[in-house]
Amino acid sequence: MESAASRQSPPGLPVPDLTPAEDQAWSALLFARRWSRGATAPLASATPVPDPLMATEGLIARSEATGWGVPPAATGEVRTLLELYLPLLPRQPMATLTLGHLGQSLDGYIATARGESCYVTGPANIRHLHCLRALADAVLVGAETVAADDPRLTTRLVPGDNPTRVILDPRRRLPVARQVFQDGAAPTLLVCAAGEGLPHRWGQAEVLAVPTAEDGRLRLEALVGELHRRGLRHLFVEGGGLTVSRFLAAGLLDRLHLAVAPLVIGEGRRGLSLPASPALGDCLRPSCRVFRLGADLLFDCETRPDPGEVGARAVTAQRGDNAVGAPVLSRV
Fold it and tell me: H or E segment at 168?
């Protein structure tokens, strides 16, 4: 059974709050996201984002040529947080971005052989998941993740709107009692294989029919196209391993966040599972940035290297090589 990394903090190990400085930077990010979704007029080169609602204190600038950037004055934990999340903001109002995330052990497992995934990664990565949800239009998970974890997929740990929840369940095996179908916390889509006799609703979720390939699997490119048509242009594929792997193998991920915990499981359920490459030169070798999330290391991988066509890119202005952040979140 496929399982995603834990989405809640383990008992006795609270998720760290944003520091006051991080909270200010996060507020600026949320405003920049809202502005980019509704912007109609271009800004002049390197102009600070206009802010009639909250003071960004010059934390974020935007250029038509390079997109979002961090001004040189931003330092420490603020710079680190902005450098991590600015690449996820739309460069243009109609830009698209698909991001995947997995949390795994040093030896590449997201759960033990019997399915225990609580808690592979630490609390800082749990907060990171909630940040990724808050910046996304939709969060996608496979049926096995919902079956194993019964997640809510909301932004409880950080300020921000809940994304639309998209549950991939081709054969409609999940019971209607799962939280995502009942709590009404966010718009929810249950994605099923197209066919006769599909209901219009599953609990409070809308049923979305998607065509399948010859192997019976959902045609992910058709799903992505339908979500884009609905205005859901920033997609966050949260789990689990099989679902993220399918998006990556199909060439549909612009970025992949891979959190690696200082843990050795030995044998279990793999995170990424891709077709074998015949030669090392044929393997995917994405450009990566590395951040520290508490005790975990986060690899921010650019898996589709031309986001000017398919997604959003942020260019950080005058980035320092040795940026130092807070212990919970820092550049490596």
Answer: strand 164-168
- Angle between the 20-38 and 76-85 helix axes, to the nearest 10 degrees? 30
Nearest C-alpha neighbor of 124 from the set 30, 14, 201, 207: 14
**Pair of tokens at residue 98:** 């698909």
CA geometry: angle 140, 18, 330, nearest 5 deg: 85
Quote the CA–CA distance of 150 and 178 in Å, as a whole number. 6
Distance CA 251, CA 26 (A): 30
The dihedral over CA atoms of 77, 80, 85, 87, expressed in degrees to the nearest 10, equals 150
Note down the domain range covering 119: 96-273+284-306
pTM, 2 dp: 0.85
Q: Which residues of 23-60 are buried (b: 16+ CB within 10 A; e: fewer)?
A: ebbbbbbbbbbebbeebeeeeeeeeebebeeeebbebb
11 falls within a domain: no
Q: Is residue 4 part of a domain?
A: no
pLDDT band of 39, cuts 50, 70, 90: low
- Residue range 292-306, pLDDT digits in tens: 999 999 999 999 865
